[in-house]
Structures are given as C-alpha cells and as structure tokens.
Amino acid sequence: MVVLEGISHQxxxxxxPSYTFERVRYVKGESGYSRQMTSRPxxxxxWEANGKxxxxxxxxxxxxxxxDGKPTVECKDxxxxxxxxxxxxxGIEKGLLDEAINAAKERTRRMKDA
Length: 114
Description:
With 114 residues, the protein is α+β, with helices and mostly antiparallel strands. It has helices spanning 2-15, 78-93, 98-113; strands at 21-29, 32-40, 46-49, 52-55, 57-59, 63-65, 73-75. 40% of the residues lie in helices and 31% in strands.
C-alpha cells in the first residue's frame, strides 16, 4: 500500500507540477504535541537528464525498489514515464512485484535496527 500510494502521488505530480497533498504533522507546543494538517508537494521519484526522464520506485521516502535488478526506469518523456508508472502500479496490484517490495521493506527494517 505504501508503494501504491507513492506511485499515485508521482502520477499526479507528473500530470500537474503544482500538485500537493495533505499530510499530518505533529507540532510541539506548550501543552505537548498537537496534530496539524499541512499541504505540500511529494518528493519526486523522477528527474530529467539528457532529454530523457528517469524514474525510481521507492518504498517510503528512501528505499529504492529494484525492478529486474535495476534501480531506475528510463523513459523517453513525461508521457512515457506516466505509462511506465501505470504499468508498474498494475503489476504491484497483481502481486508481481511483491518480492522486490519486500526486499526494500527488509532493508528499511535493517536501517532502523542499526
């Protein structure tokens, strides 16, 4: 679910560069911590170089999900990056990328334990 939510945010960001989403922040005040809703853009999982768009699939904000052993998907342009993300999203929903996602999840656990 974490990866699917991230892909949804990336698709929205690719389609609309000014896209933001609401998230909860906890702010420390005089009486302890309080919940506060903030709106901000997601951290992009894509970048442009040499006229191409490169996309990484992430578990959370840091761990990269390797697809066929490769950390990055190379696309011709933004439109093909959107199609690639939609294809990856469909594969995740079918369970085809469970092994790669579990490997990224395990790396996250090891980082927390260290």
